[in-house]
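Quick one, T. Sequence first:
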Amino acid sequence: MGIAVTVETINRLKKALTSFRYARKSRRPFRATGVKRLTQTLGPGLRRGDESQGLCKKVYLFCFETVPYRVVWGAMVFGGVLLLLTGCVYLRLLDVKGQLNRFDENFFIRGDSEFWVEFRHPLLKMKDVRFLIGADPLSVSKTDGIHHHYEFELLPGETATTLPPLHRLGLGLDFKDGLLVRIRVPDPFLRLFSRAVLEETLRQAKNSNILELQKLARAQIFLTEKTDAELPSLEKTLELLGPPLKRSAHGPWQTLTWRYVIVGADRSPSITARLSFDATGRLHTVYVLWDESAVEADFMRGA
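Structure tokens:
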């Protein structure tokens, strides 16, 4: 379950630092001494198996093979702290992505007026979700567990004269024993993306590519006849979201940009949605930038 900060891990960090000092003093290439000892000593202390060990090896090998010694010393301390603080979150996200390979064993889709995603084997912690969203919920209530309610408000476009139907969206998150067990997407959002489109997107997210350096998750969603027909057209999107903040054209394609903020947040992360349509008004790409991380879905149609 992520990176365990134990006495054993701290001791191994000390050994790694000693290896680094030895490499500097002897003026030997650090790649041949410090990195080797670092990856050997740090790996077992992570208690996460080959996946996390390989991840740490990549991070530290990159640092030590490309950065001068002085910079490495500071980067090592900063990077180590950052890894301990955020590494567990992203490793658990990778575990959730792995669960998508057996979707029906790990998730259950239900709900009447809402779209519910239930986690049969929950992994994400409450603090993970708070970190990923970047803001506290608008309200918290207790039932069988703990329910967090978020609301998002659309920033109006320059030519907007009235509030569009989706000027405000909600999101519900249910926690039990400190773990995320349910995501609730209220009915208004389903007017833009139907239940079938959302479910099919989730099922095919198992094939997404994670570009770590770009903080981007990219997926190709292969449409059925039903999901293709239920994707919003350009006309319907403008009707529901109103005039965009920005519109750009690339040949026959046009990309429209909207932005939401989290209601009640002291500092709301920037939430930007860019939708790209072809000349006939069919939706092809959805790109959502949430603070510094992004997801992109390319909708693929048959020939």
